C-alpha cells in the first residue's frame, strides 16, 4: 500500500499511544513514535512492530513539556520522512491522587506542563509545519472523561484535560483556514498501565462499575476513533472532544 502520509504519536511506548501508532501503521501511514528516554526499550519495540507491518518508521525520545525538544522532534519527522500529516498529542501523566488542599504547586505545575503545555507545543509545531506544507492535516489530542466532568481527587489532572478541550476548540478555529482539523478524544477508563497505576487494588473493579457494559475499554477502542479522525472521511469534524467511555458519561 502506498503511504497515506506521515503520523507522529507521542507517549507511544505503551498503552493507548502504542495502540494508536500500530493502528495508523495498519491504515497505511508511516509512523514516528515518541516517548521519554526512560521508556526507550518499549518505544523501540513499537517501532519494530511498525517495521514488521511494512511501514516506514522511526522512534524519537523527547519530553513533550520541553519546547526545544518538541520543535526538534517535528524537525526530525520532516527530515527523516518528508512531511508531517497527522499529529497525535497523546502523552499524559496522572496527577497526585488526593484532596485539592494537599496538592503542591510543584505537583500542579508538572501535570499541567505535560498534559496541557505538552499538547499545546505539539499543536503549535505540528500546525506550523502543516501550514507550511499547504495541504491540510490532522491534529488530535488526548483529553479525558476527567476533562468533561470534574474528577475529585484528581484536581490537576482534571484541569489539564479541560485545558486540552479549550485548546482544541481555539486551534480548530485558527487552523480551519488551512484545512487542518483539530480534535481530541476523551476516554473513560481504558485498561492501560496508567489505569492500573491509578488504583492497583480496586481500580479496574471500580472503573468497570461506571459503564453499563460493566467493563473497561481497551486501547484499541481509542485507536479506532483516532483512525477515523486521522482519515480523509473526517474532514467536516473539527474542534470536537469526542467521548469514548462505554456509556459512563453522556455529554
Ligand atoms: P500510560 O501511562 O500507559 O502511557 C502514557 C505514555 O506517555 C507513557 O509511555 C509515558 O512514558 C509517556 N509520557 C509521559 N510523560 C511524557 C512526556 N513528558 N513526554 C513524552 N512522553 C511522555 O497512559 P495511557 O493510559 O496510555 O494514556 C494515554 C493518554 O490518554 C494520556 O494523555 C491519558 O491522560 C489519556 N487518558 C487515559 C485514560 C485511561 O483510562 N487509560 C483515560 C482518559 C485519558
UniProtKB/TrEMBL annotation:
Any one GO biological process: fatty acid biosynthetic process
Recorded GO MF terms: oxidoreductase activity, acting on the CH-OH group of donors, NAD or NADP as acceptor; quinone binding
Keywords: NADP
Keyword GTP-binding: no
Pfam family, one: adh_short_C2
Family, similarity comment: Belongs to the short-chain dehydrogenases/reductases (SDR) family.
Protein name: Uncharacterized protein
Amino acid at each position: 500500500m502506498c503511504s497515506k502520509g506521515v503520523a507522529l504519536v507521542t507517549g507511544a511506548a505503551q498503552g493507548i499511544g502504542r495502540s494508536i501508532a500500530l493502528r495508523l501503521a495498519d491504515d497505511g501511514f508511516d509512523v514516528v513514535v515518541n516517548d521519554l528516554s526512560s521508556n526507550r526499550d518499549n518505544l523501540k519495540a513499537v517501532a519494530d512492530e511498525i517495521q514488521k507491518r511494512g511501514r516506514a518508521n522511526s522512534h524519537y525520545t523527547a519530553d513533550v513539556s520541553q519546547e526545544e525538544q518538541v520543535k526538534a522532534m517535528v524537525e526530525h519527522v520532516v527530515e527523516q520522512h518528508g512531511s508531517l500529516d497527522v499529529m497525535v498529542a497523546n502523552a499524559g501523566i496522572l496527577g497526585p491522587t488526593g484532596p485539592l488542599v494537599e496538592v503542591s504547586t510543584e505537583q500542579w505545575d508538572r501535570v499541567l506542563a505535560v498534559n496541557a503545555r505538552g499538547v499545546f507545543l505539539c499543536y503549535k509545531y505540528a500546525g506550523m509545519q502543516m501550514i507550511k506544507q499547504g495541504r491540510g492535516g490532522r491534529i488530535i489530542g488526548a483529553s479525558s472523561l476527567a476533562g468533561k466532568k470534574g474528577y475529585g481527587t484528581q484536581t490537576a489532572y482534571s484541569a489539564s484535560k479541560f485545558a486540552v478541550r479549550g485548546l482544541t476548540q481555539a486551534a480548530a478555529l485558527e487552523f480551519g483556514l488551512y484545512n487542518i482539523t483539530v480534535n481530541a478524544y476523551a476516554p473513560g477508563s481504558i485498561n492501560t498501565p496508567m489505569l492500573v497505576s491509578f488504583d492497583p487494588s480496586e481500580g479496574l473493579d471500580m472503573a468497570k462499575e461506571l459503564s453499563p457494559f460493566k467493563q473497561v475499554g481497551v486501547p484499541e477502542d481509542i485507536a479506532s476513533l483516532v483512525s477515523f479522525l486521522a482519515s480523509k472521511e473526517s474532514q467536516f469534524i473539527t474542534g470536537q472532544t469526542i467521548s469514548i467511555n462505554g456509556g459512563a458519561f453522556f455529554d
